[in-house]
Amino acid sequence: MPLTALRNISVSNSTAPDVDYALIGDLIKVLAIVILLIACPLVILLNALLIMAIKTKRRLQTRSNILLASLAGTDLAMGLTSQPAFIATEISRLAGGLLSVYGTLYSITPNVIVVVCLASVFHLVLITADRFVAMKCSLRYHTIVTKFRITVAVACSWLIAVTFNVINRVSPELVESTRLFETLSAISLLVIIYCHGSVYFVCRRHLIQIKSAQPFREITAKFLEEKKVWKTTGIFIGGVFMCYILGLLSALLSIILPADKKMLDRLLPSTLERSFIILNSFLNPVISCWRSTVLCKAMQNR
Fold first, then answer.
1. At how many degrees (to 10) do helices 99-136 and 63-77 cross?
2. Mean pLDDT across the chain, nearest whole number?
């Protein structure tokens, strides 16, 4: 057999798995786009209803619910901006659209996603910190956590997220050299873990005291209500972890199996990872409705 024929056979055998992985990767991308197309109007509808329910019902305008409405605001921004831009980018990529159109979308979409995701994580930090103050300093809670301070904290969350994106656009080498995104995410995660873990031990101690001392029903009912809100915050944190776990898994596998990085990129494309992150904006209002029948009824009555 001629040498050129042997080379052709070897090349065809080596490229066949790559073609299969590319096909699987494209199918995964199409599935992710279809799911996002279905979820996008639901994200907008559910978060808008949640914000309107809290805004129009005075009895729902507690400190915790105001922060919850602010979190729904970040999710609504995700549904109005990041999701459509991301879907348009991926469709343009798969359909082989104009290079100029794809380039414009590709340059805008990641920046919008980063801003909204950072703002969402910061809001989760605020919600966790709110529960920390409510359980650790219950007598001074209303003097520490005021509506004005909540407004300032929410504004600072958006300001930090937007500032990070501006620095990334103006001086990307600075962000890369300081790893600012990883630093902000790590600090936020540490604050969430500390606050949530501290509140767990406070709840445990209070439950022991309630069983032994048998205090007034009002005190017990208030504590149980605060505990339920704390559990809801824990479910929010679990939802965020579930949505980010695919990206963490992909990064971990890339470290463990560096030789198979190309195959992993095909089987776990960035489209799927970002889709999971974006879908967190759909999960948050669903958790809110599930954990609070009052909120759920208020949203249904809109």
1. 170
2. 76
